[in-house]
Amino acid sequence: MAQPIGRHFLQIPGPTNVPEQVLRAMSAPTIDHRGPEFARLTLDILDAIKPVFGTAGPVVSYPSSGTGAWEAALVNTLSSGDRVLAFETGHFATLWRELAERLGLTVDFVPGDWRHGADPATLAERLAADREHVIKAVCVVHNETSTGVTSRIADIRRAMDDAGHPALLLVDTISSLGSIDYRHDEWGVDVTIACSQKGLMLPPGLGFNALSGKALQAVETASLPRSYWDWRPILEANRRGFFPSTPATNLLYGLREALHMLADEGLADVFVRHLRHAEATRAAVRAWGLDVLCLDEREHSAALTAVVVPEGHDADKVREVILDRFNMSLGAGLGRLAGTVFRIGHLGHFNDVSLAGTLAGVQLGLELAGVPVRAGGIDAALRVLARRADA
Ligand code: PLP
After folding, report:
1. Closest by alpha carbon to 176, among 204, 148, 203?
2. pTM
3. Is the pLDDT confidence value at 361 over 80?
4. Measuring from atom 9 of ligand 1, which residue has the nearest CA?
5. Is the CB–ligand 1 distance for residue 146 below 6 Å?
6. pLDDT tens digit sequence for 310-353
7. 279 lines ligand 1 (CB under 6 A)
């Protein structure tokens, strides 16, 4: 097969395009992870990452994928047989549930249609019915990467507060952190779960848990077995700028650079940039005459858009044509959405022209795959970008 010309468009909703500055930072020689230079690196990063979570509290990091960070959140706060409440918002919420059950937790899984976020009213009902406070944690995926739906965490918190329920709130921000407004402290989240390969613009390999005071108390009584994931030895070593086991040194170089980039742009501007790109993408999809999977105007993801292909057409065929002809990767439909949706990632290191190129590739691919689309999608997107060019 001939080598594709031009750069690859990695428009899956993570891993995302890694900026050259970050790649360059990661290419520095690996240093002694028990020496003073490394300690300075750790202390800088652990400080600089707090605003991204919207927290003044500690952030624990692991060499891991997001799944590891999910497991860490559960094993540090819960005990075997504990009941947790979770919402079936899509494929990733379902995987998290399965992981929790394998750990010996009992999961009350609120059914969902994979087109809406976690419903605060249902949460209020469930918590009101739980007078004995059997539910120990509420687990929510903030941005469901399989559907492009963002749950309203502030409203979830309000439902918990109104019910006066003491459950912990655990939130997966794996595809929202650094792309969508998020406030660990203000929203009273106990454990925020994140990883490196999406809004943080790094390759895969780092997992994170941001912790509340209540989470730090829970770790003292939680009895699920844990060793590698135990927050306490990590927090202890971090105080001096170290880790209990060998850290992913070069990823940490990249993280330092990525955090500088986010701070330089300003987090508020980063969020507005993602909102504009999402709005422009939806304008294109609707102008083509296709449906966006998310059904609630308040819950559209700023990080990705899941597009429904009309019946009788195969979303995987569209992706295949686009990869083959235009050297661009789009996200596949996952789980029960396989073949019926494709996902356009517009998060991370991404600008207006990258979006215009992405949408042009999608439009051409839809036409080549024989999906009937109306003209004008790209113009509709450009109009949104032009109207909000100064936003
Ligand atoms: N949660 C969400 C929302 C995700 O998007 C993903 C992966 O894309 C995961 C969890 C699992 O993370 P990982 O594949 O890095 O283990």
Report:
1. 148
2. 0.98
3. yes
4. 66
5. no
6. 999 999 999 999 999 999 999 999 999 999 999 999 999 999 99
7. no
Q: What are phi and psi of 63, to 5 degrees?
A: -70, 100
- Domains 9-16+266-386 and 20-263 agree in fold: no
Q: How far, in Å, is the centroid of ligand 1 from the Cα of 162?
A: 30
Domain boundaries, the chain: 9-16+266-386, 20-263
- What is the end-to-end Cα distance of the chain in Å, rounded? 43
Tell whether ligand 1 has an atom less than 6 A from the beta carbon of residue 65.
yes
328 closest CA partner among 363, 294, 296, 299: 363
SS3 63: strand
How many CB atoms are located within 10 Å of the residue 102 CB? 9
Per the structure block, which two tokens stand in for 58? 């500690």
Tokens 């990525």, residue located: 258
Q: Is 150 in the pocket of ligand 1 (CB under 6 A)?
A: no
Distance 365 CA to ligand 1 centre (A): 27
Which token pair is 49? 């990452």
345 within ligand 1 shell (Cβ under 6 A) = no
Atom of ligand 1 nearest to the CA of 68: 16
Contacts of 188 (CB under 8 A, 6+ apart): 157, 160, 161, 169, 212
pLDDT digits (tens, 9 = 90+) for 204-229: 999 999 999 999 999 999 999 999 99
Which CATH code for domain 20-263?
Answer: 3.40.640.10
Q: Percent of the chain beyond pLDDT 70?
A: 99
Substitution site in 16, 61, 67, 198 for ligand 1 pocket (most atoms within 8 Å of beta carbon):
67
pLDDT confidence bin for 5, thresholds 50/70/90: confident
DSSP assignment letter at 103: T
Class in CATH terms, 9-16+266-386: alpha beta
Are residues 181 and 327 in contact, defined by beta-carbon separation less than 8 angstroms?
A: no
| Residue 174 CB–ligand 1 contact under 6 Å | yes
Amino acid in the structure at residue 79: S
DSSP H/E element including 11: strand 9-11
- Cα(216)–Cα(194) distance, integer angstroms: 18
Name which of 292, 255, 289 is nearest 366 in CA terms. Answer: 289
